[in-house]
Design brief:
The protein is α+β, with helices and mostly antiparallel strands. It is 37% helix and 32% strand. It has a five-stranded mixed β-sheet. The N terminus is likely disordered.
């Protein structure tokens, strides 16, 4: 069956728009909780929601000579959040990190890693250092 084009799709309903807005707000809240956790661990937040044509990085943070690229995942359960960081998404984050370094060549001298912060309701965020690496 053919996939409808944007012109053939009906406009989003008010309920769908409200759902998207609520999801966006939950994502911002999760990123704020993750940022506070990292700040408590001695990191400075260098950027939030760094976007480039290749992908997006939720948080970029540094502590001394360590630069971390952080993916924040919020779900009802921490296990579900952990499973949501897919290999495809990891590749997009790595590509976005390469773009970050192109824009910030001074960071090339830093040690770097890819971390994940998992967020679930009524739970403390869980920071997973070196959750994945840049190798294909």
């Amino acid at each position: 069956m053919a996939r409808p084009t944007d012109r053939e799709r009906p406009p989003p309903t008010a309920a769908a728009s409200a759902d998207r807005q609520a999801a966006f707000a939950r994502g911002l809240s999760a990123e704020s909780r993750a940022a506070l956790l990292l700040i408590a661990k001695g990191f400075r937040i260098a950027a939030r929601r760094f976007k480039c044509p290749l992908g997006e990085i939720d948080l970029v943070a540094r502590r001394r000579q360590l630069l971390i690229f952080v993916e924040v995942k919020a779900r009802e359960r921490l296990d579900d959040a952990a499973e949501a960081v897919t290999p495809r998404q990891q590749r997009r984050i790595v590509a976005a990190a390469e773009a970050w370094l192109a824009y910030h060549p001074e960071d090339m001298a830093c040690d770097m890693r890819f971390d994940v912060v998992l967020v679930a309701p009524r739970r403390l965020p869980q920071h997973i250092p070196a959750a994945f690496d840049a190798t294909p």
